[in-house]
Structure formats: structure tokens, C-alpha cells
Amino acid sequence: MPRFGVLGSGVVAQMLANGLKRHGYDVRIGSREPAKLAAFREQTGIATGTFAEVAEAADVIVLAVKGLALRADRRRCSIAAMTLTPNASSPICS
Predict the structure, then answer these.
(1) Residue 13: pLDDT above 60?
(2) Would you call 32 helix, strand, or coil by DSSP?
(3) Backbone angles phi, psi at 66, to 5 degrees
(4) How many CB atoms neighbour CB 76 within 10 A?
(5) What is the pTM assigned to this prediction?
(6) Paired strand residues for 62
(7) What mean pLDDT comes out for the span 67-74?
(8) Which of 23, 31, 66, 94 has its CA 20 to 30 A from that of 6?
(9) Given this model, what pLDDT does residue 66 score?
(10) What does the alpha-carbon distance between residue 45 and residue 20 come to, in Å, rounded to a whole number?
(11) Cα–Cα distance between 16 and 19 in angstroms, integer?
(12) pLDDT value at position 53?
């Protein structure tokens, strides 16, 4: 079963991480500021970390960040082979 890394700390990222965990997946969630996720970690038991930490531990990376932060967040992960496939309905694709 693949390990998921959800990058983002907002409501969408937290709901995705929770859903993946409920369906039995190994999931972590990352933020530019991991302290933002302390309460979420305590409440759900989902591991947290920086974008780079979470991305390095994942087989599948789910981006749940604001569109304007997309490029900067990719650079923070320092993953040379990372390919981004934005959702076509997202404003970043417009």
C-alpha cells in the first residue's frame, strides 16, 4: 500500500489526510510551519513535519496548498524527480 504525504496545513489538507487514514493508508501531513499542525497531530495521531520531511517519506505526494505557493513549495521539497499535476479545475491552471 502506498505511503501518502499531504503537503499543506489548511482545512482541505487536513480533511484529505484524515480521509486517507480512515481508509487505512499510511499518511503524513506537512507544512511550511509544522507547529501549525500540533493540535491536528494530537487529535488524529497523524505524523507531521516539514514539506521536505513528509515528501521524502511518501510514495505519493498530495499538494493541498494555495495556488500561488505551488512553485515555492515544490522548491522547498528538494525533490528533483517530483512531477506536479495540478487539478485542471484549480485557479493555478487558468
Answers:
(1) yes
(2) coil
(3) -60, 145
(4) 16
(5) 0.76
(6) 6
(7) 59
(8) 94
(9) 75
(10) 13
(11) 5
(12) 92
3-state secondary structure of 17: helix
16-62 tens-digit pLDDT: 999 999 999 999 999 988 999 999 999 999 999 998 899 899 998 88
**3 state SS for 43-94:** HHCCEEEEHHHHHHHCCEEEECCCHHHHHHHHHHHCCCCCCCCCCCCCHHHC
Query: Cβ(12)–Cβ(32) under 8 Å?
Result: no
Architecture of domain 3-84: 3-Layer(aba) Sandwich (3.40)
Cβ neighbors of 35 (< 8 A, separation 6 or more) are none
- Angle at Cα 60 formed by Cα 13 and Cα 58, nearest 5°? 90
Close Cβ partners of 8 (under 8 Å, ≥ 6 residues apart) = 29, 30, 31, 63, 64, 65
Give me the residue spans of the domains in the chain: 3-84
